[in-house]
Amino acid sequence: MIVFIVYVKNQEKSKEFYNEVLQTEPFLDVVGITEYRLDNEVSLGIMPEDAIYRLLEGKISHPSEINGKPKCEIYIYVKDPDSCYQRLINSGGVALSEGKIRDWGDYVCYGYDLDGNILAFAKRD
Q1: Contact (CB, 8 A) for 123 and 77
Q2: How do residues 94-106 score in pLDDT, each as one tens digit?
Q3: Which CATH architecture fits 2-59+69-123?
Q4: What are the sequence ranges of the domains in the chain?
Q5: What pTM was computed for the model?
């Protein structure tokens, strides 16, 4: 199992956002981490910025210092990228690029989540 974790300002707000965008409920939701299964081997976790800062005993820069700037890209293959993209916008995310065939052959839409992380919704024909 691979778990990708992004740091978020507000775990509850981000959980509501991802519930809507991914159209699923988390399989783990406790104080400090919420996780969504993306497939059998991969999940996405959302962790409060303060939690990772405390966990690593302040040995990292606080993630809030770069809020609003892309920290990662989450590239998710879905059946209907345009629907995911529209849900992202409707849930408070920011539209970056509408769906189109990219140079590598995938049809992809891009947007920001509530914390400035880039979400890409893709499909292959």
Answers
A1: yes
A2: 999 999 999 999 9
A3: Roll (3.10)
A4: 2-59+69-123
A5: 0.89
